[in-house]
Amino acid sequence: MERLPRLTIPVIIGIVVLIIIIAKSSVTIKSGHVGVLYETFGKGVVTNKPPLGEGFHLIAPWNRVFIYEARQQELSDKMQVLSSNGLEIKLDASAWYQPVYSDVAKLHQEKGENYLQRVIMPAIRSAARSVVGRYTPEQLYSSKRDAIQDEIFEETKKILDKQYIQLNEVLVRDVTLPPTIKDAIERKLRQEQESLEYEFRLEKATKEAERQRIEAEGKARANSILSASITDNILKEKGIQATVELSKSENSKVIVIGSGKDGLPLILGNN
Fold this sequence. Notes:
Shape: elongated
Strand order of the largest sheet: 3-2-5
Oligomer: single chain
CATH architecture of the largest domain: 2-Layer Sandwich
CATH class of the largest domain: Alpha Beta
Number of domains: 3
Distance between the termini: 154 Å
């Protein structure tokens, strides 16, 4: 009975130590994340083996595991950049990115856990300044929004591809110009629209006038040809035909005496 307490204390201590060792030797990586193993008594960050995937893992208690999110993430940033003529432009953009899964250990070793601030933000800001600096405010406001979005993506991607980061998309949500420049551009666009509308109406009126001229010329040529083809004999023949047809009508009583002018019959008593 006296030995029981003496044995119980070491057992309890041993159980506590074992629990601590197990706690230090196990790591659970959540869905959408990846682990980078750091060997304290080895060569540090393990880069020659695949990273630790999702699930439960046992490691030496003196080693550490750094967890990175492997899913696509979003960076939103508002920047002030200069146009080609030196005017300040406010750019609101987003970037979709994620670490390259197989190179996450190198990313941790060379860039660290705050790679967003160290690498991605400087890269996208540099690309935005470079791209926007090629365009005028008019181009940025109207037709070049998609173009600058694509160009910022391409330039940022060139930088991040060398930094173990995968860039999926860059979205330009808004381009804000100085109010005076914006008002001037809108006035210019309205004037251009009105000018195009006037040119359209003028062209339409010109085409209609041309159509009427061609139609009138066609009618004039037709009348000229018709007049040239009609002779006195043809008129007499047509008159005789009309008289014959009229005489056949049951509702008419025709008396023909002598002849009228130009040799045509004279019709009297037509009811």
